[in-house]
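Module 6 notes. Inverse folding takes a fixed backbone as the condition and produces residue identities as the prediction. Think of it as a translation problem where the source language is geometry and the target language is the twenty amino acids. Below is one complete input and output pair. Work through it position by position during the lab.
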């Protein structure tokens, strides 16, 4: 992220203060000009002619309203409708949720989702699973997001109930975390259905000699997986 994308808060505050002071100076200047004009002596009225011209009708001043506030340089603001969340939780299955995406047409696609937390309850990772087809032995896909500053050369390891782990490469890192996209076979899904707990193992970049283990509860996985929508490419 560039500095332009993340403007320092102090700079923002100073810019706002300067703009506010400028607006107050302009208002004070206008008041001073008006006062000066009131102090000037009035010009002598011209001599009346024998036939005085009819006085022109002067329109009544408009009541001060929204336009007056706008002309002063200060906006009164307007109501902004909040954007609808593109995702929603349709149903819960144990520790898993059926998270769906609002589609413009047709049925909303859904995936099995779990927000993973560490012992203190803080969220540390996300795990989502969806069905796929025509991918050979792979019958389901998974997206796992782990914290930034993960050592990418040490791939993500996944094991179920202490069995031998499988290793998966990371695909990309974003502003919110690093992502591994995994393919799951029928054997993998069966292990998830039979198991009680899966474990994610990753290595932090700042401490490459250490390993971080994140537990994934498999409570409700079987019923939840049967409700997952079919994703096709």
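Target side of the pair, the amino acids:
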């Amino acid at each position: 992220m560039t500095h332009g994308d993340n403007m320092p808060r102090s700079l923002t505050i100073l810019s706002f203060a300067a703009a506010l002071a400028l607006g107050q100076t302009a208002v004070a200047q206008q008041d001073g000009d008006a006062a000066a004009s009131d102090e000037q002596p009035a010009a002598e009225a011209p001599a009346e002619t024998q036939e005085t011209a009819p006085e022109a009708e002067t329109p009544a001043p408009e009541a001060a309203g929204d336009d007056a506030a706008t002309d002063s340089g200060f906006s009164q603001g307007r109501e902004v409708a909040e954007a609808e969340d593109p995702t929603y939780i349709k149903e819960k299955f144990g520790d898993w949720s059926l998270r769906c995406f609002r589609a413009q047409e047709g049925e909303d696609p859904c995936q099995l989702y779990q927000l993973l937390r560490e012992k203190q309850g803080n969220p540390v990772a996300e795990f989502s699973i969806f069905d796929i087809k025509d991918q050979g032995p792979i019958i389901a896909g998974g997206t796992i997001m782990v914290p930034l500053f993960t050592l990418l050369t040490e791939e993500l390891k996944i094991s179920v109930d202490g069995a031998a782990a499988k290793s998966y490469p990371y695909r990309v890192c974003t502003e919110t975390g690093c992502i591994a996209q995994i393919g799951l076979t029928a054997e993998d899904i069966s292990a998830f259905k039979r198991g009680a707990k899966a474990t994610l193992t990753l290595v932090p970049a700042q401490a490459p000699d250490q390993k971080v283990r994140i537990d994934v509860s498999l409570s409700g996985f079987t019923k939840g997986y049967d409700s997952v929508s079919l994703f096709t490419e």
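Reference fact for the lab report: The domain at 87-148+170-195+219-231 is CATH 2.60.40.1880 (Immunoglobulin-like).
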